[in-house]
Amino acid sequence: MRVRDVGDTAFSIELDDNAAVAALRVALRHGPPVPGLIETVPGLSSLLVCFDPARASRDAVEAAVRERASGVGGAEPAAGRLWRIAVRYDGPDLGAVAAAAGLSVDEVIALHGGTRYSVLMLGFMPGFAYLGGLDSRLRIPRRAEPRLRVPAGSVAIADDMTAIYPWESPGGWHLLGTAGVVLFDQTRQPPALLAAGDQVEFIVG
Questions:
Q1: Strands 82-88 and 199-204
Q2: Could you state, in order of their start, the residue ranges of all structural domains in the chain?
Q3: Bridge-partner residues for 117, per DSSP?
Q4: Among candidates 112, 195, 106, which has minimal Cα distance to 155?
Q5: Does pTM top 0.70 for this prediction?
Q6: What is the pLDDT along the chain (205 residues), one digit of tens a residue?
Q7: For the chain, what is the radius of gyration of the CA atoms?
Q8: Residues 80, 195: contact at Cβ < 8 Å?
Q9: 3-state class percentages of the chain: helix first, strand second, coil last, to nearest 5
């Protein structure tokens, strides 16, 4: 476990993997309150811990978090919500992904749509969820030349993750299809549909 300061009111804990991050976050959220702890924000194999220095010192919060981390061990974190999202596999990169993976287009669709993914973290833009668990046969690097415009709702893969673009934006991931789900709505509470720890399945539709 490595700890790095992030300003005067937060520090980041680097853990072995995302499962350890999820387990620690659950332990902090549902266990006895840690004095001074405000919130935790999961990252990729890391957890940002935000605290109030007027209520507890940084060292005291870190000690409490370390103690909680030592108690989770190999415990499985509680599963979040399960979302089944319909995808129209009509993306412009389907053929290129199939060729790079040595598969047919139908095999790419079957592999991508036949997996249950875990929401590891949100980042890049509001509502953008990084989904882990992509089949190893579909793991290819990002595009050499990012697109200047990726339409909202694009379902994409890159490296060992998949995601849905909630907004139109530039992007370097490979586009496999389109989903009509609204991932971020500022009038909704919470605004982001997906949260770290949730599970996602894609349904061909």
A1: parallel
A2: 2-72, 82-204
A3: 200
A4: 112
A5: yes
A6: 899 999 999 999 999 888 889 889 989 988 899 999 999 999 999 999 999 999 999 999 999 999 999 887 655 555 689 999 999 999 999 999 999 999 999 999 999 999 999 999 999 999 999 999 999 999 999 999 999 999 999 999 999 999 999 999 999 999 999 999 999 999 999 999 999 989 999 999 8
A7: 19
A8: yes
A9: 25, 35, 40
Top-level class of domain 82-204: mainly beta
- The residues, ordered by sequence, that sit 6+ positions from 200 with a Cβ below 8 Å of its Cβ are 82, 83, 84, 85, 116, 117, 118, 119, 129, 131, 194
Contact 194, 118 (CB under 8 A): no
The CATH code belonging to domain 2-72 is 3.30.1360.40
User: Among residues 85, 83, 88, which one has the least CA distance to residue 175?
Assistant: 88
3-state SS, residue 101: helix
Instruction: Annotate 122-134 with DSSP letters as a single string.
Output: E-SSTT-EEEE--
Any alpha helices (H) in 73-183, and if so which ranges? 94-101, 105-113
What does the angle CA 4 – CA 9 – CA 12 come to, to the nearest 5 degrees? 25
Rounded CA gap, 161 and 42, in Å?
Answer: 16
